[in-house]
Every structure is written in structure tokens, then in C-alpha cells.
Amino acid sequence: MDLRILDTEIQAFIDTNIGKSISKLALQKNPFQEVDWISILNQIEAKTKAKEKLPTWFSTKNIIYPIKISIEQTSSEKTAAYKASIISGESLIDLTGGFGVDDFYFAKKIKTVVHCEINPELSSLVKHNFEQLNVSNITCYAGDSLATLNTLNAKWDWIYIDPSRRNDTKGKVFMLKDCLPNVPENIDFYFTHSNAVLIKTAPILDISAGLSELKHVKTINIVALENEVKELLWELHKDYSGNINIKTVNILKDKTETFDFVLNENCKFPNLSLPQKYLYEPNSAIMKSGGFDEVSSFYNLNKLHKHSHLYTSTALLSFPGRVFEIQNTFPYNKTEMKSYLEKSQANITTRNFPDSVETIRKKWKIKDGGNVYCFFTTDENNHKIVLICTKIS
């Protein structure tokens, strides 16, 4: 960590170039010969990424940023704040500290927080940043977190882990045993130091696959930000063997949508019906949860088809997702498409439909955008249909 990067003139140069093209800046001559040019460019690129994701860091003076991938992989402040709402108690140890955003928010609720980071340079950088952020109840340890657990030999109210994939050679196959640290292999050891473990995983992890590797799971939190699932949070409690609670959260600019249910609890199969006056599309967190019957039952909504995951009603309801008023419904065929949509402009969504959005746009010359929303789907009679809608929320 080169503290010369904090020179007033260098910091002013970094701030002046926020949002600028790094590739173009790289062609310029370094105006500060005492500091590596690549390091300065990295600060510009990383701070640019932090502007929306980490506004507290962005607005605090003398923050030093790591390589850009660390900023890309770290939690946003909004998801970190949600994580902090889950935990309670006096002490927490984070075994995979990273850039420390989660710990910053844990420290607002927990008296003593320990940040473990295997990369000594990143650990030193985070310690420096916590000082700039006036955080005094987080202690940073560099080195292997298992060794730190043994050395400290303490009992913690919570252990927090954000395991990282070792490599991408398996493509989309994602198992916790392929991550560092190997949580399934070490879970019994973790429970000797805490009765509660919180694990963050990427949304690519299949919930059933995670449950096959983990034991004592009490709650799974599915967290979306602006309708994009960002992380799964697994709450494990020592010796727990009861029902598994699913909590879906979609954090929006002006509100937060939530929907909770008990996994695999008996739920009646939803009623199917043809499209009525209103159409409902669950948010991405609910879609990831698989609680399609549960959301239908809770809101007393009919479903268009067993596999379409679109819902309808005659009366307007508040719903965790997008809500539309159906203006027209017609069968998907050449005559109807030429009459209503060919060479028009519309927002297109497909659900349980053989053609992709791209294929539909190309075939019928439909431009993207506008105030018309079209759903291409399958109804209860297995007919391919098109719903033309206006958006309510």
C-alpha cells in the first residue's frame, strides 16, 4: 500500500477524472512520477465503480481502493445494511473480510467485529480505510482465517463467511465445496467457535444444491437490488433441524418488497384461469426462491399456467413485483401479430414460451421501449398467447 497515493494533488487528479475512459487516460504521460501510473489509474477506475455502489467510501477523504475486481465483488452498501439487520449480539468474526463493506455495517450493530483477510496488503488497506471512516470497533487480522480462529480461541455470537470460487473451469456448476474456504468441510469446526454462522453465496448457487451441502440451515435470505438478485444469505444455527424459512427481499429506490414462506410446507396448487383484468409478475427474488405456488396462495391470485409464473386477478392488489393492466389478449399467430404488433414498439417479456425475445423482435420487426408491455406466454389450455398491457407499478 503506497500512501503517496494520498498526496493532495494526486487525490485531486483522481477526483477530476472520475468516470473518464481509463484506456484513454492510460495513453497520457504520468504527471506524478513518484507514484506508479497504473496504481493511479486503478484508483480512478475503482472509485468510479464505488460512486453508486459505495457512496460512503466515495464521499470520504483519503480512502484507498484495491484492484477493481475487489470493488466489483464486494457487497453494495444497501445489501450490507440488510445483512446487518439479520445479526445481533456482542461479537462477530468475518473469515473472508475483503474490502470490509459488510463489516462496516456489522459494526453498527455489533460491539466487537473482527475482519480476517488472507491478503496482507488488502488487510492493511482496509485497516487504513476504517480509520478514515472513524470506525473503532473493528480489528483487522491478516492471514489464514482458520489459523486466526484458533489463535483467538474465542466464542463468537456470529461467524460470517463469503466463500469465493477457486476457478471457473466448471462453468456454471457451482458447489460450495469448490470454494475457499470450503464451508461444508469446515462447518463442524466453525460451530465449535459459534452457534450461528451466516454464509453469503452468489445467486448462481442453486438452493437445492446448497441445502444438499449444508446442514442446520434455518433461514435462506434471497436479496435483490433493483430487481436483480445479488446474493443468497444462509443462516445456520448449531443443531438446528426444523423448518427452513425463505425470505425474499427486493431493495428498490423508494421501497423494499418482501415475501416470506416456509420451504416445502404444504401449499395448495394455485387455481388456473385465463387472463383477467390485471397481470402480476413476481420480482426476481421470488423467482429465484421457487415460491410460485406460495405467492399465488398468499395473494389469492390465479395462475395463467402451471409453468408460466404469471398471475392474474379481477381486482387490483399490492404485489411484490411488476403489476400491469391487461388491455388486450390474443392468440399468437400471423394474423393477430400483423394486426396488433408488427412494426410497432413495445417492451417484451417471455414466460413459458418457445421463442426468445430476440427472435420475436426480429421476426415481427418490433422496436424496444415505449409504454406498451407485451407478454408472450402459454395459457391454462396450453395455447400460445400475447398479452398487451400498460404498467401500473
UniProtKB/TrEMBL annotation:
Keywords: Methyltransferase, Transferase
Domain THUMP-like intervals: 321-391
One example of a Gene Ontology biological process annotation: methylation
Record-linked Pfam families: PG_1098_Fer (PF22013), Thump_like (PF18096)
InterPro entries tied to this protein: PG_1098_Fer (IPR054168), SAM-dependent_MTases_sf (IPR029063), Thump-like (IPR041497)
Keyword Nucleotide-binding: no
Matches recorded under Gene3D superfamilies: Methyltransferase PG1098, N-terminal domain, Vaccinia Virus protein VP39
Recorded superkingdom: Bacteria
Signal peptide: none
A single MF term (Gene Ontology): methyltransferase activity
Domain called PG-1098 ferredoxin-like: residue spans: 278-320
Protein name as it appears in the record: Class I SAM-dependent methyltransferase
Species name: Flavobacterium algoritolerans
